[in-house]
Design goal:
about 120 residues, alpha+beta, rod-shaped, binds zinc ion
């Protein structure tokens, strides 16, 4: 089936020009460009280090990282506790982000610190 590449309409075989816009019809529509990942805060130089149960832990981790000379950013909100049949599950998406170049060092800091929690 011929398609108009700009209107994305389908036409009967034998039609070779779009009656709407005059574009030459093609056999197949080009693939739609894939949507870029939906990331509300994206910085290619930063990578997520840890997901933490609360902003308090995130602040603590940030301080520990700063003491090591690693800048970090906290993204996300305090977890929302919701009730299930059996328990309260804290949901959190507080994430600490660190520069890509520092991620290994930051990982060690995070491991050490979170051991003590
Ligand atoms: Zn058209």
């Amino acid at each position: 089936m011929p398609f108009c590449p700009s209107c994305r309409y389908e036409y009967k075989p034998g039609v070779w020009k779009c009656p709407d816009c005059g574009a030459q019809l093609v056999d197949k529509l080009p693939e739609e460009a894939p949507k870029p990942e939906q990331e509300e805060w994206s910085n290619p130089d930063f990578v997520p280090l840890r997901n933490l149960p609360s902003r308090l832990y995130a602040e603590m981790l940030r301080e520990a990282l700063e003491a090591m000379g690693i800048i970090s950013m906290i993204k996300g909100d305090e977890g929302i506790a919701f009730r299930t049949m059996t328990s309260h599950i804290p949901v959190s998406n507080v994430t600490v982000w660190v520069p890509r170049k520092d991620v290994e060092k930051a990982q060690q800091v995070a491991d050490q610190m979170l051991d003590h929690i």
